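Quick start: read one record
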Amino acid sequence: MKHHISRILPALIALLLTLPSHAALALTHQPHAPGIESKDYVWNKPDKEMEKALGHKGDPVKGKALYKGCTGCHKADASGRDDGSYPQLAGQHVTVLVKQLIDVRTGRRDNDKMHPFAAEEVLTTEDVADIAAYLNKLPTPATNSRGEGKRLEKGKALYVKDCAICHGDNGEGNDKEFYPMVAAQHYPYLLREARIIRDGVRRNANMKMVKAIGQYSEEDLEAVGDYMSRLLPPAK
């Protein structure tokens, strides 16, 4: 099954039907790995599976076939949802995509809805690399949802002061450092993720970012999120 998943959802359903009840329950319930609540937490600590995935030359053709099982939520062009329920993935860095997928399946990033689609029983490590390679090559649509545009000057000032050092002057991110591209991301998604990082809820967060925005007010988050959502994605 691991080597013949042209559609992830049918494979998942078939697997659940053939597994013993206790095994099916384990698949549909996300495991829990220590995160920022742990005193021993280190962001982006070397991980054997992540190193294996990044060491595999991802195949975009295979990734395209595998991604068909993701289109129901993330859409066929990987542009996500305007309401921020699902992020735009098109054009995102391979390292970021691999890390977040593996964090979800190991339980470092809480996402019960996505876990069954990223679980080891459904995707091999090579599958993860293939999907990331495919998504990375997609053009990033600049049709994402944006904020109200009321405090863009404030948002820019905050971004330049606290965010550009990691996410880049134009929101392009940093592939080598695992910092995501934030340009052209949906405003509600940026706002939600910034909020749960500030509040220490997102357990796989980078502690540097928690510290950087720890004192941000809701108005600050809205301003910088709106500004980021308006940054244009790099040309492919």
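The chain has a mean pLDDT of 91.
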